[in-house]
Structures are given as C-alpha cells and as structure tokens.
C-alpha cells in the first residue's frame, strides 16, 4: 500500500495538552518557541496555534506568541480560533516573509460562521472549512450523511472561489474525525464516504482534505490484544483508508507515525469491521481490539 506524504499541521500549541497549558498559564514564551521548533524538526509543514480563551482577553499576548514562534521557525502558521476578531489579530501579526512567503491558514470556517470569510480581506490565506456541520433553519446542525458532507464542501468552496477568488489549492476541507470509542452512529464511515464524493467531484478538483487525527484513538487503551500500540495503530488505520480517498493533510503530532498499515494488520482489519457497524455491535467489536 502506498500513499503520498501527508502534510502535517502541528497540533501541540494548544491548551488541550496539559504541558502546553502550563506554558500559556506561565506566559512561557521560551517554552512555546521550543515546542514550535520541536514540531518543525519532527516534520511539521505548519504550526497550529490555539491559546484558548486567553486570545479573547489578552490581545498583546496573542500577538507576542505569533511573533515569538515566527522568530523560532520558518514554516507557516495556522490560526485555530472561531472568531473573526481573533483571526484579525493573528493575521495582522503574521509576517509572511518569515515563512518563506507562504500564506497562513485560517482555521476554521463553517456555514454558521461564514462571516469569518471576511478575514481573507486582511491578507491572502489558506482556509480550512468545516464539512461536518451545516446551516439549517438558521442553526448549525451536525451532518449524519456523506451526501451532506459533500454538499457543505461544495457550497462553501464555491463561495470562496466565486466571492473571494480563492484558488482551490488554498481550500482545505475538514471532514471531522470522530472518536472511534464513542462512534455508535457510523460517523467515521460517513466521513470516509463523504471523502469519496468530494474526491470524485470534478468541481472540487484541487482542494485538500484533512482532519484532527488524534481524535480517532482517544479513550482507548495503550495496547491492542496483538501487542501493537493501539492509539497510533488506529490513527494509521484511518489514514490507510482515507488517503486513497483524497485525504492529504492531518492536524496531528509531527513525531507520530501516520504511514499506512499493511493490509493484513490486525488493527486495520478490526477497524474496517467496526466502522461498518453501529450501536452496541460497534462497541462489542471495538472491545475485541483490546480484550481477548
């Protein structure tokens, strides 16, 4: 099994990781720079930045973090905030010349916060759009069907191309990766099937697809019954199925292995079984991954 090299958006500068939260709580700029360097050295193509709620209350710190990271690394940044005002701060602080002329990423836009598209007027950027939810009757609703994922991807991509003259190469569709341990509705299968529809759509040719890969293995034990490292094997099982469907980027940890698993790998074959099931059947088969 072969695949093109996945581009990695380094995920670790995020208060969801305890060690990163300590850096933010202590305003440890040196530590944040070291973490950015570690991700670049491990192969990250972008550094994702999310400092949590402090971005809303401490504008100066947000700008200082961006400047410091750009002093430490020479790869582009991804700004992970669902707020136009925060994106404005980030995009104005970003120095494109320090990233070899590369555009930053606005992460992320959905149908119920399309106003964030106006951030593209601040500076040319790449954009991550959320295909996992749609606007219906004035409210955001979670998608449960592959056709809904595809339809949202089309609508948002068309608006970005038509209104903002965005190149398709600058559009990244986040198909949203659900946690396998709690997926009783077949949402991982939905995401994979949605990828197929997007990948086969000639009007979406040239766009990219990504997802937060760490989600898929959350809440699982460290080891599978065959002794393999379960969480990373689950991540690799997902990429083994997703990459042939056009999935080419991950929000993940750069020092993790995301290469495809051999076709006869125990975890890969169990993963295929689980994602075709729902409810208790999915949970029972999941347990057989780590319980004899």
Description:
With 292 residues, this protein is an alpha/beta fold. It has a single domain (7-290), classed as Dihydropteroate synthase-like (TIM Barrel, Alpha-Beta Barrel), CATH 3.20.20. It contains ten helices and ten strands. The protein has helices spanning 18-25, 29-41, 54-57, 59-72, 84-93, 146-164, 187-200, 230-242, 266-275, 279-290; strands at 7-13, 46-49, 77-80, 105-109, 126-130, 133-136, 139-142, 171-174, 208-212, 247-252. The chain has an eight-stranded parallel beta barrel with strand order 1-2-3-4-5-8-9-10. Helix 8 (230-242) links the parallel strand 9 (208-212) and strand 10 (247-252). Helix 2 crosses helix 4 and helix 6 crosses helix 7 (187-200). The longest helix is centred in the middle third of the chain and has 19 residues, at 146-164. The model has no long low-confidence stretch (mean pLDDT 95).
């Amino acid at each position: 099994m072969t695949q093109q090299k996945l581009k990695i958006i380094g995920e670790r500068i995020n208060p969801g990781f305890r060690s990163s939260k300590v850096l933010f709580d202590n305003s440890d700029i040196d530590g944040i720079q070291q973490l950015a360097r570690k991700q670049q050295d491990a192969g990250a193509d972008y550094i994702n930045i999310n400092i949590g709620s402090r971005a809303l209350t401490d504008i100066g710190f947000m700008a200082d973090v961006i400047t410091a990271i750009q002093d430490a690394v020479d790869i582009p940044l991804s700004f992970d905030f669902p707020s136009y005002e925060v994106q404005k701060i980030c995009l104005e602080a970003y120095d494109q010349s320090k990233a070899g002329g590369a555009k930053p990423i606005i992460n992320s836009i959905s149908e119920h916060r399309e106003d964030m598209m106006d951030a593209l007027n601040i500076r040319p950027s790449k954009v991550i759009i959320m295909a996992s939810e749609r606007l219906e009757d004035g409210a955001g609703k979670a998608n449960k069907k592959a056709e809904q994922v595809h339809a949202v991807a089309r609508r948002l991509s068309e608006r970005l191309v038509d209104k903002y003259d965005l190149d398709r190469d600058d559009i990244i569709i986040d198909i949203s990766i659900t946690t396998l341990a709690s997926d009783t509705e077949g949402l991982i299968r939905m995401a994979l099937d949605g990828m197929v529809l997007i990948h086969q759509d000639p009007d979406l040719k040239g766009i990219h697809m990504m997802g937060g890969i760490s989600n898929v293995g959350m809440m699982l034990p460290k080891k599978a019954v065959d002794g393999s490292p379960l969480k990373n094997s689950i991540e690799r099982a997902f990429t083994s199925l997703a990459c042939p469907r056009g999935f080419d980027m991950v929000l993940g940890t750069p020092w993790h292995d995301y290469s495809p698993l051999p076709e006869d790998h125990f975890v890969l074959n169990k993963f295929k079984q689980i994602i075709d099931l729902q409810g208790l059947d999915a949970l029972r088969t999941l347990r057989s991954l780590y319980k004899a």
